[in-house]
Each structure stands twice: as C-alpha cells, then as structure tokens.
Amino acid sequence: MGDNEGAKGTSKYPTDTPKWPYNSVVEALQTRLRSELDGEVLFDEFSLGRYSSDASIYQITPLGIVVPVSSDDALRALEIAADEDVAILPRGAGTSQCGQAVGQALIIDNSKYLRNVLDFDAAGHTVWVEPGVVLDSLNAFLRPHGLWFPVDVSTSAQATIGGMTANNSCGARSIRYGNMVHNVLAVEAWLTSGDTVEFAEVGDNAEGSVRYRQLVDRVRALYVREEDEIAARVPDVQRRVAGYNLDMVSTGPFNMAHLLVGSEGTLAYFRRIKLKLSPAPPHKVLGVVHFPTFRKAMELTQHIVKLEPSAVELIDRTMIDLSRENPAFRETIDSTVRGEPDAILLVEFAGESEADQLKKLASLSVLMGDLGLPGSVVAIEDAKHQKAVWSVRKAGLNIMMSMKGDGKPVSFIEDCAVPLEHLAEYTDRLTQVFEKHGTRATWYAHASVGCLHVRPVLDMRSASGAEKMRAIAEEACELVRQYKGSYSGEHGDGLVRSEWIERVYGPRLSSAFAEIKKAFDPKGLMNPGKIVAPTKMDDRTLFRYKPGYSTLPIHSGLDWSGHEVGEGNRDRGFAAAIEMCNNNGHCRKFDAGTMCPSYRVTRNERDLTRGRANSLRLAMSGQLGPDALVSDEMYKTMELCVSCKGCKRECPTGVDMAAMKIEFLYQYHQRHRRSLMDKLVAYLPRYAPTLARVPRLANLRNQIPGLAILSEKIIGLSAGRSLPAWRRDRFLGQVEVPGGARGPEVVLLADTFNTWFEPENLRAAVAVFSAANYNTTVAESADGGRPLCCGRTFLATGMINEARAEAKRMLDALRPFVERGIPVVGLEPSCLFGLRDEFRLLLPGEETDALAKLALTFEEFLAREHTAGRLNLRLVGLPVRRALVHGHCHQRAFDVMPTVIEVLNMIPNLETEIIQSGCCGMAGAFGYAARHVDLSRKMAELSLLPAVRAATEDTVIVADGTSCRHQIADFTERKALHVARVLADALDDQADKKIVKRQPA
Ligand SMILES: Cc1cc2nc3c(=O)[nH]c(=O)nc-3n(C[C@H](O)[C@H](O)[C@H](O)COP(=O)(O)OP(=O)(O)OC[C@H]3O[C@@H](n4cnc5c(N)ncnc54)[C@H](O)[C@@H]3O)c2cc1C
Ligand code: SF4
Ligand code: SF4
C-alpha cells in the first residue's frame, strides 16, 4: 500500500497522546487562533477531553478546538491550521459510531453557530445550508412548504447536515429515497490548498477553477483505470458507504460532490451543502407483520419489498421484550403486537393518495397469506399510533444500551448489508459466530435494504473484549464478502472499519483511494488515519478504555451500589454510573422533552449531559490530572446543571446527572468552602421556624432596594429577584374538623416551601381531600420538633450527611403510616420525588423502598383513587375555561404529567393544555443567583414564558413547582397556581368539610 503510507500525514506533532503542553506547534497555533478569530478557541484539558470521544469505542485527545462564529471565521481557522501544518477535523454533533469524529487534530465544531439555512428554492425543491444545521431543524423549517429532507437517520435531532454528508448517512426510508449521496446536489468545500471550490455536476468537460478541473481530471483518470476493478469489487447493494465513491464517477457527466459524500472529513471541509428536497408524503399507513420465527422474517423480506413500501424495519423478539419492560413503550407494544411473535417487520406505505396506500396495505395482507402467514398483519392507519410504533423502533439502540454491567453492546459490525436473498442465511451464520465467541446480540432496523443493526455484547475494558471483537469482525467480514455484501453499510469507516477497506475492495481500489486523498489533500492534513492509512481497529491505545484504565477510589456520599453490576464494577458504582454514558449525543436535542436545559441555552459541549459525563469519567480515571474531580474547572462543568432529572428519564442509558451533581458537590466541598448563599439555601428548613416568627423583618430585603443590592453583593442573590415571602399564616396543620375523621386515611407531606411561603396550597389540598372524604393527617416529626423536610436544600448543595439526617427524620415520622400502607402525598414535586429517588441513594433499604411505593404526588393519588372508583369528589367548575399547565421537570422525569391532566380534566368545562416547555430555569435556588439569572431567564424564554404571555385572560396558569411559579411571577404578569388550588376553587361549596389533624400513631 505504498501511496497509502505516503498519505499518512506530514504533521509535526507526535503520534502518541502526549501531555499538555507538549509542542511548540500547538502553542503557535493557539496563539494565532486566539488573535485572529472571533470564535471560541479551546485548548484547556477539560475541553480537549470533552472532544476526545464520539459515539464509538475510541478516544483520542485533539490538539485544540475552534467553535467558529461564522463561515468566514471557520475558513480563517482552517487557513491557520493549514499554514501551521496541523491536522484538521471538522465536527458536527459527534454522534459517529466508527471513530471518524475523533483524532489528534484541530477540531472545527460547526454545530454551535453554523446553523443557517442559506438559500431555499421551494419551487425547485432545493436548499443550501451551512454544515451545522441539524436535520430535525431543517425539516421543521421545510414542513410548512410541504417538503422534507428524507434521509431520516435515527439521530435526526442531533445529526448535522455536514456530518450526515461526510458519513453518507442513511435513514429508515432509504429504500425509497436513497442515502445522502442520492440527495446531495452540490458542496462548496475548502481544500487544504486554500481553494474554496463548488463541487457539483460536471459535464463531459469540467468547468471552473484550474484546481477543480485538475481534480475532476484526476478522479476521472482513476475511474477509467479502475473501471473493471470497480465492477468486480464494489458490492451491488444500495447500502455501501466504505471508501470514496469512485464508482459514481464516470467518463461522461457525473456529480463531483458525490465523491465528497462519505469522505468523513478526509478530503475537504464542507462550507455549504446543497440538498435535494422531496415532497412530504401526506398519507402513510403501517402494516406490522408478525413472524413465528426470526428466520421467516428474514426469508420473506425480499418478497415484501416488491410491494414498493417506503420502509421495512425489523424489531426482534429481544427488543419487543425489552420494550415491554420499558414504561414508555409498553402501551404501544401491547396495542400493536399480537401474541408472542419472534420478530415483527414494520412495513410502511406512503404517498399522495390515501386510497393507494390502503390498497397497498391490503395487498400486504394478501401477500402474507400467500406466503403462508394469513392474518399476520396488524394494519395501523391512525397517524398517532404509527408515530408511537416508530418511536419504539427509533429507540431500538437506546433500549439495548441501557444494559448495566461489564459487557456492553459494541458497534463494529453494526451495519453490514447483504443482498436480500441472503439475509436469512447471513443472520443465521453470524448468530452462530456470536455463540462461538460466547456472546449474544439483538437484531433490528433496515431489513428493506439488507442492513440489519447488530451489536455483540463485549467488555471493552478487558483485553479479551478487544480480542473477541477482532475475531468476530474477521468472521463477519468473510461472511459479508461471501454474500457479496457491504461491510460498511451505514455508519462509515472511521477507525473501526478503515482497515477493512483493503480486505473488501482489494489493493487496487484501496490504492486508488489513497491517490484521491493525495490529490485533494497532498499534505494529509484532513482527518488523518480515516479511510486511508488507517490504524488497526483493535489498537487498544486508541480505545476509550485503554489498557490499564482504572478509576480512582472515592468515599462516595451517596449509595451507588446499584451500578456495581459485574465483577469489573465492584466497589466502583459511581464510576460505573458515569460510564453508562456511551456518547450517543441524544442529549443534544431541542424537542419537547426536558434534557438538557443548560445546553439548550448555551449550546456548549461543556454544558451538556454528555460533556459532564465525559468530564467526570476522565477525572475519575485520572486523565485530567490529579484532583481534577474536585477542581474549579469541574465545578464550572457541573455548575449549570439545574438538576432537572431530564437526563434520568430521557437519556437512553439513564445517565442521572442530577444525582451525580450531588455526589460531585459532596466531593468538591470536602476541599472547598461553601459560599454563604449555599449555606443560606441549605439550612433553610432549620432556620425557617425562627425567621418565620418575624416575617416583616425577614421580608425587608424584598421591600428595600438597597438591601436587595447588598444581598447581591454579599450573598450573590440577584437584586432583581424577589425572594419567596415569609408568611404569618404559615401552615402547621392545626385544622380540626367537627365530627372527626371519616373515610380512608391519607398522609399529607407539608414541605418546607409550601409550609412557610405558600400555605394556601396545603390548605387547598386538605380541603380537596376533605371534600372527597379522606381522613387527612399532616406528617409531623416523631420528636415533635420543627417540621419535616425531605433534605432537598441540602442535596442541592452536596450536603449529603445533612440530607441523610433529614431523610432519617422523615422515615421515622412516616414509619407508622408506611407500616399500615397509608399513602403519603406531596405537593412539591422535587420534595415528593426525593422520597422515591434520592432517599434510595441516601438510605437504601426495605423501609425506604416501602415508603417509595407509597409516596405519591397529589395528582397521582387522586388519579389512582379515581381509577379505582374510590374518588368521590364533586367539582362544580371554575370561572375560567382553560388551564395552561407547565410541568415541573421532576414531574416530567417521573412521567406523571398525564395524571395532572387527568385530574384537571375532572373539572367540568375546563380545557387543559400542557405547555411544551422544558425547565423553567429557576430550578430551586439556581435562578436566584446573580450569576445565573440571565441563563435562568433564557431557559424560561425558550418556550414557557412566551406561552404564558400568550395565554388569554380566561386561562388559569397551572404549575406545581414552587420555583416554576416564582419564575412565571418574576417574568410575566401572570400568577401560576398549584393544581390543589385549582381543584379547591372548583369544589362544590356545599361539600361537607372534614379537615382533620391527627397525631402520628
Ligand atoms: C444512537 C445512534 C443512532 C444512529 N443512527 C443512524 C442512522 O439511522 N443512520 C445513519 O446513517 N447513521 C446513524 N448514526 C450515526 C451518526 O449519527 C450519523 O452518521 C450522523 O449523520 C453523524 O452526524 P454528526 O453531526 O454527529 O457528525 P459527526 O459525528 O460530528 O461527524 C461525522 C463525520 O463528518 C465529518 N464532518 C462533519 N462536518 C463536516 C464538514 N463541515 N466538512 C467535512 N466533514 C465534516 C467529521 O469529520 C466526521 O468524519 C447513529 C448514531 C447513533 C449514536
Ligand atoms: S448523557 Fe445520555 S444522552 Fe447524553 S450522550 Fe451520554 S448516554 Fe447519550
Ligand atoms: S439534570 Fe438536567 S440540567 Fe443536569 S445534565 Fe441532566 S438534563 Fe442537563
């Protein structure tokens, strides 16, 4: 591979991963970038660490990172890098699975600023975009025009068009629309020679700059030379993304941009990309075909595709079972899957005419009958139901990745594609290969094009994991070759598959690829080591878990034993929890979910769940130097996490950064003093009874501007914020009802915030319970001392021992009720969910588990009683017609918003709507800090505040979270109410009040 070797970069830096600062070249580069760019220039160890991995198994520390603010800024950075002979690595969302987005290079991150749609031709169905535009945002822009960009990758919420183009990405509907290469019309690209060239259709004779014509002539000559080898070697399957697309060149007209598609950043930097758009099909129907055996599904796919579906996607038995176990998907599976099939195929038909699609769906049923499976098709016409089924399929990989323990499903042969007639035999034989190597895998995805996803479970921290990976890869590659398939069918080559290009395509084409690389990038600066001159896929020095990887022992404050699954994770639960992040980048999303509020505002990799998990992992494994875990840099990394628990629910692998932040703060404050503000927040439950005796004095800060300014200067509390007001009429649960208690018992948890600042909420809850004939007890401490507290304020500042003491008081107080199975109901979501969540990390054990089972939000309790037919609540209605509801992050994280709606819907004539908002931005005390107030407001402005401001007068704004209500009050003219207040207002005034205060038994 002579030429291949030659292309292995001429850069001046060492090939291993040295320690910073290690090279004058890098220093010179950094100095120039800082002085000549407008964008962000990141060379600190934490940033380098955060950009050292993608969704692959690899980790390579980059030289530095530039986040350009404009296209011109990016070009300036590229020029400087080329001038300094430094390798360049363009990057989008970093969701690549093969390692093509990591390297020892200057990373140009397009995803933060280069997100503009540049030139849209609705009539001509084309658009020019910048490389950092995310697919879902582009499609949101196109939707009103009835158009879409149809390469619908599963990572559509993160993947950038630049990354998709460079990876030649493919979506579920590729059978109809093809891959990126079939949908990119032109690319304006920068070459290391300094030329910026538009690559597009060329005729018999290329036109354009000298450099462009030279390149066209060169690749044409290579094509002519290799035409017979291309015919012999390039597999005849749609899904092939290995090497460069030399087979798409021709002696006649062809599109030069197609050579750049799939080049993985190794040939040029894409400055602008022109895309072909498609009309969005207005009608879709879905046939879910049930198969008694997996093999049958594989055998019959080839017949189904003849009906011209827009997608045929596989979900196997394991995935059906895993989805059933997941509360988010159970209902969909139950309403879709009949019996216990071994596999199902999702067959979609889409087009202009509804009648045509229904006809096709009917012919699918006929076909399956003819093929010996009558009655195997469940037809789904309802759009919502279809969407729910697709969401199960889309979450396929994520469902698998939540596996705890030493072994994890590893991506390295995940997207081989074979001709459909061989699919059954191929999957059979590969399954046998897995069994031979003592592992297993789950199959799913693109059956229509013979490209099934499969990840064997391996422990990549051990040498044997790498050995098994190599052995399985060898056999898989051989199988794919036998079936004339494609070894790289979707995710690209990167570090994991570039070495196989020569094996599959042969030395002649492999050399031709090296010549292409040399023609485009003579100095080998663009993303070296990918496609051409590759390293070995099993070179463990390039792995995320390198030989000798270990983590520092810590005395953790929380109990992480739930993560100590497998031999390799013994006594390292916190580290194992952090390592659950596999870098898939799902947290970079902007949909209706919550995760991740700080990233949504700053768009910094640092302020992303992934960025935090990576920083923690690197620090815990000593890769960021001594004491990195308790460093100020780590503090900055964790600071903007608002502990919303969005990731706990929405991260596919369940990374619970809110809990990790508690542990981090605990560790950090072993070394660093707490601020005055932290202490004031933390000890609120302890001093509240004293301060509440002098409410006028305590509230002076809100009334005298000078005091507010002083509080900002001394404590750091934003002067612009009003603090919750202390109340004379605090709630102490002293409400007696004549006639005594009747009906079933319920314990009401009077949390710190509602007790001292908004007692009317607790009174409202008691009134509602009373009206429904419940015998309400307000939980009180067993020692008769100050009110109970869940410990939330201590957790927010990492004071785990204090929080544990509060949790213990709570458990002691509630024990008599828990023993009798009495429900414990809370109004403040973050406090109530503390009982179900953090208590388990503070005081793990049967008693805590028993309490967790009984702890319910106000709405969960009422909805449960309603469903059981026990709720006897007469509601007469409200003077308003509409309720606009903002869900507290923890209500979303624990998926209880449906119960909020259910309960509000009990009020006659009230229309209820949930605001599609994420975190309100206040997040406990976070938004009160002067240094956070701007970010806090920006979080709220993303969707919550505009929705509240747009609400009509006859709309009641509903928010169960204390801090959410304060945020709304601070930045809008509206006041939000707890559901308990709304319900109490809707009570039949004639209802018999039976409010009872009882001492704990
Ligand atoms: C859970 C999961 C599911 C996935 N599902 C799919 C799927 O359904 N289909 C699919 O095809 N892939 C899938 N992928 C892989 C990946 O998401 C896609 O390839 C995606 O298109 C990558 O986009 P990105 O913005 O993250 O690119 P990155 O990973 O950041 O970069 C990808 C490559 O593009 C290069 N690049 C980026 N920008 C430029 C530029 N401006 N100029 C030149 N080169 C550039 C980079 O150097 C790199 O080589 C999946 C990955 C994960 C983790
Ligand atoms: S935190 Fe979760 S969603 Fe984000 S990259 Fe890691 S695993 Fe993916
Ligand atoms: S808890 Fe919320 S803010 Fe913190 S990382 Fe998770 S999603 Fe982001």
List keywords for this structure.
1001 residues, alpha/beta, six-stranded antiparallel beta sheet, 41% helix, disordered N terminus, disordered C terminus, binds flavin-adenine dinucleotide
Walkthrough of the structure:
By secondary structure, this protein is an alpha/beta fold. It contains 43 helices and 29 strands. The protein has a six-stranded antiparallel sheet with strand order 17-14-16-15-19-20. Strands 5-6-12-8-9 form a five-stranded antiparallel sheet. The longest helix has 27 residues, at 494-520. The structure holds flavin-adenine dinucleotide and iron/sulfur cluster (2 copies).
What is the element layout, followed by pairings?
Blueprint: H1 2-6, H2 24-36, E1 40-42, H3 45-50, E2 64-67, H4 71-83, E3 88-91, E4 106-109, E5 117-121, E6 126-129, H5 135-142, E7 147-148, H6 161-167, H7 174-177, E8 184-190, E9 196-199, E10 201-202, H8 210-233, E11 254-255, H9 257-260, E12 269-276, E13 278-279, E14 283-291, H10 294-304, E15 311-316, H11 317-325, H12 327-336, E16 343-351, H13 354-370, E17 377-380, H14 383-394, H15 396-401, E18 408-409, H16 423-436, E19 443-446, E20 451-454, E21 457-458, H17 463-482, H18 494-520, H19 573-578, H20 597-602, H21 609-620, H22 632-639, H23 646-650, H24 657-671, H25 676-682, H26 684-691, H27 695-698, H28 700-703, H29 705-714, E22 745-749, H30 752-756, H31 759-771, E23 775-778, H32 792-795, H33 800-819, E24 824-826, H34 829-836, H35 838-842, H36 846-854, E25 855-857, H37 858-867, E26 882-886, H38 889-893, H39 897-904, E27 911-914, H40 933-941, H41 944-950, E28 955-959, H42 962-971, E29 976-977, H43 979-985
Parallel strand pairs: 2-4, 3-4, 22-23, 22-24, 24-25, 26-27, 26-28, 28-29
Antiparallel strand pairs: 1-2, 5-6, 6-12, 7-13, 8-9, 8-12, 10-11, 14-16, 14-17, 15-16, 15-19, 18-21, 19-20
Helix pairs in contact: 2-4, 8-18, 10-16, 11-12, 12-14, 16-17, 31-43, 33-36, 37-39
This protein binds flavin-adenine dinucleotide and iron/sulfur cluster (2 copies).
One iron/sulfur cluster is lined by residues 581-587, 609-610, 613, 647, 651-653, 655.
